[in-house]
Amino acid sequence: MQLIGRLADTPAATPTSTGRDVIRYSLGVSSGSRDESGNRKVSWFNIASFSEGPQRDLLLSLPKGTLLYVEAEAKMDTFQTQDGSNRTALNLLQRNFESLSRPKVDNLEGEGAGSAVEEPQSGLGAS
Questions:
Q1: Which residues are bridge partners to 54 per DSSP?
Q2: Smallest Cα–Cα separation from 98: which of 64, 126, 67, 63?
Q3: Is 86 in contact with 118 (CB distance < 8 Å)?
Q4: What pLDDT score was predicted for residue 36?
Q5: Do 105 and 116 meet the contact criterion of CB atoms below 8 Å apart?
Q6: CB within 8 A of 45, min separation 6: which ones?
Q7: How many CA atoms lie within 13 A of 83 on its CB side?
Q8: Using an 8 Å Cβ cutoff, are 23 and 82 in contact?
Q9: Three-state SS for 94?
Q10: pTM for this model (two decimals)
C-alpha cells in the first residue's frame, strides 16, 4: 500500500515485550475535491515501523505536519473488545518512507506562522 499524507504528530518509539522498539505514528491522507469551505476529506491511518539506524533517527525527528510518502504492508486483524464485540482493524507496517516536505518554521512573530510548507533540500521533489 502506498500513501502520501501529513503526520498527525511526531512519531513515538515504544519498547515491545521482546525489547525491540516500535515506532508508531498517524498519517492524514486527503482525498476528493474540496467542499464549499475549501476542505478535503481526510482519512487517518495508524502506522507501525521497526526501522533501525539512521532511518529510525530520521523518522523520530520529523515534526507534526511533515508530508510523507509511505510504503506499507496492510493487514486486516479481527479482535474482541472487553464488552465481547468483534472488531476489525487495518494494521499498516511501514516498509519504506520518504519525507517529501517539512512544515515551515517561522522565527518571526505574526500571521501565517507555520502555515506554509518548506521544500525538501535534497532528494525527490527538489527543484
A1: none
A2: 67
A3: no
A4: 87
A5: no
A6: 3, 5, 26, 27, 29, 90, 92
A7: 2
A8: no
A9: strand
A10: 0.74
Grid cell, residue 82, equals: 472487553
Nearest-CA neighbor of 23 among 45, 50, 1, 5?
Answer: 50
**DSSP states of 9-77 as a string?**
S--EEEE-TTS-EEEEEEEEEEES---TTS--EEEEEEEEE---THHHHHHHHPPTT-EEEEEEEEEEE
Residue with cell 519498547: 15
The predicted-structure confidence for 59-107, as pLDDT tens digits, reads as follows: 999 999 999 999 999 999 998 999 999 999 999 999 999 999 988 766 5
Give every CB contact of residue 52 below 8 A, 6+ residues apart in sequence. Answer: none
C-alpha cell at position 59: 523518522
Over residues 20-59, the pLDDT tens digits come to 999 999 999 998 888 888 888 999 999 999 999 999 999 9
Cα 61 from Cα 70, distance rounded (Å): 16
